[in-house]
Amino acid sequence: MLNKLPPRERQIVDILYRCGQCTVAEIIAALPVELSGSAVRAMLRRLEDKGFVTRTDSDRGFLFSPVVADSVARKSALSEVVRTFFNGSAAGAASALLGMSERLDERELDELEQMIARAREDRERGR
Fold first, then answer.
1. For each of the chain's 127 residues, which pLDDT tens digit applies?
2. CA–CA separation, 80 vs 99, rounded Å?
3. pLDDT for position 40
4. 14, 52 in Cβ contact below 8 A?
5. CA 122 from chain center: how many Å?
6. How does DSSP assign 52-76, residue by residue?
7. Long-range contact list for 49-58, CB < 8 A, 24+ apart?
8. What pLDDT is attached to residue 75?
9. Interatomic CA distance for residues 107 and 52, integer angstroms
10. How far apart are alpha carbons 99 and 69 in whole angstroms?
11. Which of 18, 47, 48, 125 could pair covalently with 52 via S-S, beta carbons 3.0-4.6 A apart?
12. 22 three-class SS
């Protein structure tokens, strides 16, 4: 979904996910490349037309925010990574993450164990 956006539009959406709501000036300040206000506004209009961004009026001017919940966007992006780099194998992706276990603390490892246990329970209930 987001991976289909042109790079600059994707950067803007990423900024909105980090900030929640932003004005055009805040987006311009957060971009890694200097762009004019009119260029950013044009991209925001396109993103609105595509259904990725919504605009609300405020005392600071228009505030822009992402339409799709960040959890949905993360799941979509991760699905794309799994499909592209792990041939669709969630186990392959999980194995790669666990291969980085030196970066995982005990709490994160415990969370992973709990998620696996819940996934097994959900699967068994579904049968």
1. 677 889 999 999 999 999 989 999 999 999 999 999 999 999 999 999 999 999 999 888 899 999 987 777 778 778 888 888 999 888 888 888 788 777 888 898 888 889 889 989 998 888 6
2. 20
3. 96
4. no
5. 25
6. SEEEEEETTEEEEEESS-HHHHHHH
7. 50/5, 52/2, 52/5, 52/9, 52/13, 53/12, 53/13, 53/16, 56/21
8. 82
9. 34
10. 29
11. 47
12. strand
Residue ranges in the chain assigned as alpha helix (H): 7-19, 24-30, 37-50, 70-85, 90-98, 106-126
Determine the distance from the C-alpha atom of residue 9 to the mean position of all C-alpha atoms in its chain, rounded to a whole number: 13
Find residue 63's DSSP bridge partners.
56
* Nearest-angstrom CA–CA distance, 68 and 17: 10
